[in-house]
Amino acid sequence: MVTRREDSIKELNKRKTNEQLSAENAALRKKVATLEGQLTDTQIALCDVYEALVGGEQ
User: Fold this and answer.
1) Residue ranges of domains in the chain
2) Tens of pLDDT along 36-54?
3) How many whole angstroms separate alpha carbon 5 and alpha carbon 3?
4) What is the 3-state secondary structure (H, E, C) of 4-28?
5) For residue 20, what are the CA distances in angstroms to 6, 15, 24?
6) Which of 11, 36, 51, 58 is least surrounded by Cβ atoms within 10 Å, i.e. has the fewest?
7) Rounded to two decimals, what is the model's pTM?
């Protein structure tokens, strides 16, 4: 069975340009880097709490 894709001109005009996609990609990469740093800080803080609870600091 053949399926046809029917895109209207209105829908085609809503597509993002390469420049828009590149800008969005750059913004998302920056956000991911920030979130990675925050996650690392959170993991370190949790390790500190765990060590304090079990008396791991000698």
Assistant:
1) 9-54
2) 999 999 999 999 999 999 9
3) 7
4) CCCCCHHHHHCCCCHHHHHHHHHHH
5) 24, 10, 6
6) 58
7) 0.61
